[in-house]
Every structure is written in structure tokens, then in C-alpha cells.
Amino acid sequence: MFIVIEGIDGSGKTTAARLVAERLNSAEFPFLGKSEIAADDEETLARAGRLRDLIWASPESAGDTFGATHWILLIASWYAGLARLRQDLTSGHGGVTVMDGWYYRNIAKTLIREPLDPLWVESLFAPVPEPDLTVLLDTPPEIAWQRREGFKDTELGRWDGFHGPPAESFHAYQSVVREHLRRMARERGWLVLSPDPTRPPEETADAVVSEFRARSARLPTASDGSALQPVTTS
């Protein structure tokens, strides 16, 4: 089963994903995140490194000089590579993969940046597997702002026309991102959780694990008759 923890920047995705992964841990499998292509040959690894750098290593101070279409095509290329090379994301894989976010925020931010056709943008990710369980941490921006010391320009909406004091820009920008994620949650049948900021994050992880166990109980056993074994990634 493939589990994704989604939400706005600062919503607690990383913490929740790590806790869920710990609860479903199996030492048989490696821990790999969505920035790891998991290829064996050097040429594929080199190409993946160049693409990774184009997407994530560009200085934010330069701004989005190439535009939203350029970036979403690069990101879609990366996820297409994951779908082809990562066996733990394939349908019928006999384990559990936990991811801290997927491509959904990339879609939301692209639609904010430029007035592109939403159906076209989402179609770019058609080769990418849909998670078996996507959990939206529906955290208000004012709560997310308090969770971290600082946020990058892209998280403040600087590339997308949001200016002014950082806290105000973050709240305005992430509110729009949040509405896009809520729309996707309704359309795609995600589990939506609204974590209480006064309660420990372990409670959120326990709720995700409970939903996982309920769904996995309805899955068939492996072809050899054994129970499906978990593999966790973060």
C-alpha cells in the first residue's frame, strides 16, 4: 500500500510521515523518499541528478524566470521517472510506502502562478501512481506559520505575486494552496485530518495507521499466501 501525507508548507507532513513510517517499520526494506530515483546504473543516476538539480537546486533569488509551464513539466518528468523505476510504487507491491507529500502541491502552486488549464496540468501526471491512501493535514496557515523558524520565498508566495510582510504573504498564499488541496481531497476521496495543535503529533500518526490497518485488512494476501509485509519510506 502506498500512503501519502499531504498539506500546505509547514502543516506537519514530515513529522507525521516519519511517525507513521516508524509505526509500520520493517527492517527488510530500505528507506527512500521521493527525491531518490533508486536506479542501478550510473547513467540513469547521472541523468536523475541533473534533473533533480534543475528542479530543486536553482537559487530562489533568481525567481521563476522560465515560468510555471517549464517547472511543472520538469516536475512531471521527475515523477514519471519515479513511477518507472521505483518498484515500491508499482501496483501490487507487497509492502507499504510512506511519502511526505506527493505532486499535488506542485499542481496547486502551478495553477496559482499562471492561468493554465487545470485538466492539462493534472494530465501531465497520468503515468504517476495514485496513492492507495492520501491524508490531507488540513492545517490553517496561521498554525503552520508558527511551526517553523522560517520559510523560503517559494513558500511565501514571492514567485506568485504575494508580497508584503512574510507572515501576511505566507497566510494569503498558503490559504489559496490550501483551497486547491481541499478541492483535490473532495474530488479524489482523500482522508482529511485537522490536527489539534495543542495535541501531540503522535495522535495524528495513530489516526493514519488506524486507517491504514482498516484498509489493509480488506486487501488480499500475497501470492504465496503470506500476509503483506510493510516497507516504509519517508
From TrEMBL:
Q: Which Gene3D superfamilies match?
A: P-loop containing nucleotide triphosphate hydrolases (3.40.50.300)
Key word Signal present: no
Which keywords has UniProt assigned to this entry?
ATP-binding, Nucleotide-binding
Native species: Streptomyces zaomyceticus
State the family named in the UniProt similarity comment for this chain.
Belongs to the thymidylate kinase family.
Q: Where are the transmembrane segments?
A: none
Instruction: Give one Pfam hit by family name.
Output: Thymidylate_kin
Ribonucleoprotein among keywords: no
- Where's the Thymidylate kinase-like domain? 5-149
- Domain of life of the organism encoding this protein: Bacteria
Q: What is this protein called?
A: Thymidylate kinase
